[in-house]
Amino acid sequence: MAGNIELHAFMGLADVFRQRQWSNPHAFCLDADLTGKALLAALDIDASNVEVMFINRKAFAVDCARIHPGDRVALVPPGVPGPHRFLLGFKNR
To answer: Is 45 within 8 Å of 13 (Cβ atoms)?
Structure first.
């Protein structure tokens, strides 16, 4: 089942969106479910530039993420300061 995801980018990844003249959030069409790595490949974003993906407000490592049409996805790069990591729920990554 095809559909759009709502894709958000933070910190340096937001700069990538601006350089590509994408809105933030950016609507991205999926033809089917994707893994986190497959989504990043489709977006032409190196996986080393994303530490955590939030899918519908829940944190996932890129290699554990599964995205479905209709999901809300946020890409968070490495370098988020300590207190924010705790508040966002990925302090041990």
So the answer is: yes
Tokens of 49: 């530039």
pTM for this entry = 0.85
Looking at residue 82, what is its pLDDT?
59
**Which pairing describes strands 34-35 and 52-55: parallel, antiparallel, or unpaired?**
unpaired
What mean pLDDT comes out for the span 33-59? 94
User: Where are the alpha helices (H) located in 20-81, listed in sequence order?
Assistant: 36-43
Adjacent-strand bridge partners of 35: 66
39 HSE (CA, 13 A, CB side): 32
Domains and CATH numbers, the chain: 3-88 (3.10.20.30)
